[in-house]
Amino acid sequence: MYWDWHKAIGGMFRIGAVLLVFSFIVQNLTSLNKLSLVQLPVGSLLLLILVAVILRNIYRTLKWYFTWLRSRKKFGSITNVIIHFCLYAAVFFLTLSIPVPILVSSDQTFVPQPAPIDKITPGTSDNITAVPGSNTMGYFNQTVQHTVSTDTGKSDQDNPASDEAARAHTVTVGDSSSVYASRYLTSPKTVNYEYVLRGNHSQIPCTVYGGMSDHLRSQPRYIMYSIDNSKPTDIDFIMKDLNNKEQKPFIDQLVKEIENITSNKDDQARIAISLVQNIDYDSEGLMTGSIKGKYPYEVLYTGCGVCSEKSELLAYMLRELDYGVVIFRFEAEKHDAVGIKCPQQYSYRDTGYCFVESTSPSIITYSSGDYVVIGNSTTKLTTMPEKLKICNGDSFYSVSEEYNDAVTWDSIGTGKVLDEATYNKWLSLVNKYGIKTTKVD
Prior knowledge:
The chain is α+β, with helices and mostly antiparallel strands and about 450 residues long. It has helices at about 5-25, 30-35, 40-70, 75-95, 210-215, 235-240, 250-260, 265-275, 285-290, 295-300, 305-320, 400-410, 420-435, and strands spanning about 115-120, 125, 140, 190-195, 200-210, 280, 305, 325-330, 335-340, 355, 370-375, 380, 385-390, 435-440. It has two domains: about 5-95, no CATH class; about 115-155 and about 205-440, no CATH class. Strands 3-1-11-12 form a four-stranded antiparallel sheet, with no helix packed on it. The chain is elongated, with a radius of gyration of 30 Å.
């Protein structure tokens, strides 16, 4: 019996390779399991096999140590064993410290975020006969509760009402940026998303999938963090929703369709804004207390959302269109709106971002609407909102059109009888932006 260092070194390289694979599987266990059937978790099976291989190698190494110590002179035996053990331990520590690639997965762990509470419902609609009312808006309180976990682990404007823009293209998922996207192409349905651009009404038929919506609904609404790290903030929760990679290819196809309607970049933003504004406000969810915070794709699939949910969807789409975007969070009024980067003179309270209401059709930059509180009382947005930055990007330079219209709309006022000229001016704005109205007897 003799000590063969060539074989010993070869064995160390082999166990090092096994440990690298082991490290990769451990850090991507959930993702690997999702690549296969639930009944056949590939990641878990590979992990068990590798654990068995590693334990067998450790057993054989220890057995060899004892055999060598019993059969050789004490000094030479101990020296070889100590050197081999140190090299062996170094291989373990160095190999397991090498960074390995992490597969995309939505199964993250988070700190609990309580269900959002809404206290303002969409207001009464406008009187199209003589009384101009405010656009109806939603109210959303996204209180964030953080609990500590001890776990360590431009061209000329195009007219979208043309035959080409009104074509009936059904949006489907093309090249996916997520390796798991095809798993959720179940329970399809076609939804016609309506939008209004300068008085021209049109729609984009889009195929959406219940499988993806169900998957996102099952995801946790919290963020797990170490006690040594800072608590997640409001923007952390927003970015968690916006950066979910599994919904990305589905929403991006809708954004691409908007880009196909017109080459005018600012009109693309107008279409996206109007499309989200025309998605219903989730009054039923508010009244039943079933709101827990939807991902942007869930808003598209269910066809409804409260202000924070619709604002996140709009923020996502404007980000994909390369605009600078923020979320305006009004803590006192419990309301979220979107801010799109624009020239300073048109921006909301000199923030550099124009106010965009997401809950119902409204003129960009108009922020003086009445918000109807439960109990039928109303309030306005009077406090300075927190500006939650989503991304840098382009400016909405042509917003002067909306700004001037919003000034006109605000000057008309509410709750009064209009003369014919003022009424016609009011009605023109209602039709131009598709503002919701009801007839009052």
